[in-house]
Amino acid sequence: MNWTVIILFALMSIGTLFITYFASKKTKTAGSFYTAGGGLTARQNGLALAGDFMSASTFLGLIGAFSLTGYDGFFLMYGALVSFLVVLFLVAEPLRNLGKYTLADMVTTRFKYKQVRGVTAFNTLVISVMYMLGQLVAAGALFKLLLGIPYNTSVIIVGIVMLVFVLFGGMTATSWVQIIKAILLIGGVFILFMIVMWKLNFSFIGIFTDMKTATPMGADYLKAGIKYASGWDAASLSLGLILGTAGLPHILIRFLTVPNARVARKSVVWVMWIMGAFHIMVIFLGFGAAKLVGTSNIMAANPAGNMAAPLLAKLVGGDILFAFIAAVSFATILAVVAGIVLTGATAFSHDFYNEILKDGKATEKQQMTMARWASIGVTALAIVLSLGLQEFNVAFLASIAFTLAASSNLPVILLTIYWKKFNKTGAIFGMMTGLFGTLLLVALSPNVWNPVPGASIMTGEPIFPLNSPGIVSIPLGFIACYLGALIGNRRTGPKTVAKDNYNEILVKSNTGHDVKGVLRH
Amino acid sequence: MVRLEKNLDESEQTNLVDYEKVVASKEFQNMLSDKKKFVIPFTIFFMGYSLLLPFLVFYTDILDHPFIGDITWAWAYGVSITVMSVWVCSIYVRKSERIDEQIKEIIEKEGL
What we know:
Chain A is an all-alpha fold. Chain A has helices at 3-26, 30-35, 42-53, 56-69, 73-77, 79-98, 103-110, 114-147, 151-199, 206-214, 231-244, 249-252, 261-293, 295-301, 308-357, 364-387, 394-418, 424-443, 470-492, 494-499, 502-511, 516-519, and strands at residues 449-450, 458-459. Helices cover 77% and strands 1% of the residues of chain A. The longest helix of chain B has 38 residues, at 73-110.
């Protein structure tokens, strides 16, 4: 037991509960619960977005990946910034202009059918729970390593603490926790970076020479191919990461917390600068961990390298820096999981309950009650599922969520905004094919099948050769949308084409003239 | 604290605004084509630039040469994706300020 760690953890929890208390006073309507009333500024939302994105698997995982696999760390990392360009160029502004509370709101602005809303909300729930599993499993592992608390107990503790501030504070509290956490994380990483570089005499070029002999990999450490067997596997992973962000509901919903498209755009600029700086520091922290802590020590603490950052902090900064980094990791998990729970709960109470069951006539109070019950339900489901997933690789679970988002949500989002001939059949068919196609490919991949008995869940040759299904499943999602649209157009004939509201979508998504109402306040 | 305005009745709005006319207008078409002129080439550029990396480092050795000291071009390329992203992002912001002007004119002219 490390008392410094426990005290900092406690302070962090009390701090977040304080924020929740103040936010709960402002959370009076369903709108403020779902999207903080659309009143965040560009800097606030940019920090919150960066916070959402720098999850435990990013922060702990990337430093670990660079320390253990050298150059191959890039394939896990570089997709992130490019993915925000995809969001910025193609999705953020139309989404802000068309959406209200959820992704389903945006899609149903064009296709006003309950089936479309239902499928989109279902998709949001599946992706959110999938993403949450990775975070909860990481939390369990982290607590177990840092505090010696058993895995199952840690998962339940994290689940309950996070639930408390989602229940009372809604999106306002979640956003503020996310913002503060992002500042702490960047600050912590910067301090660690400065100390590590000071230990290495700030030789940014010389460190590359040192790395050639610092690890068991020798000069290969600086070349691609330590982790990934082929360029196709690396490209498939990167493609999933590049396109996944633009389909992740808990990231997209962040663009609905700002008043207009201009602010949405500016918040991406903040994300770019914050994450750009973070990424550069991560490379050198990976080097520092490999050189100072040593490959064998990192592997001994966690074979996937997830403990590289805390170990490095302990080595160069002693117990206090170690405790600080560990507490920030804890806050990170808490904040990210809360954002995801909220996204799932909103999809349930707003889409399923209010719009589908109650025809949009549920009162504010009924919706808030339903959202709170849904938060409890989503959390309970994720906790139960993650109790059975202790042995799973965290990065694997997170990458499935990304690829699911890129294969099922992204094609529908893009075609809804940009393709005149797209229709309801295409949207439903595309989302279902993307969702179940990805899950099927993962089920047939080397992640699940291994010829060596006991190395994976199933014993046998994998039918699908790649670890990341993105390069197949993403085109599959687009093709399914296209074929579905063709079938739909043939069945309904020219009558509905005349009634089509694509022009209205085109005007609204470009000008955002009907979100002006929010601005005036 | 900003609060959401009450829901506008969508069908009512559709009757008020003639979207066919707005889309057909010269200003709207100009705005769309101006937007496409930078969104499409830049999207192709940043996707191509970033997806090229795995193939270059796995299947060629053109990036294996030293850039500065023991830093190879492969590392320089990897880091340049970060720099490229920030740069493309700033171009987008500048270009879309101009589009914002056009949109403002359309909103005023069409009375949206």
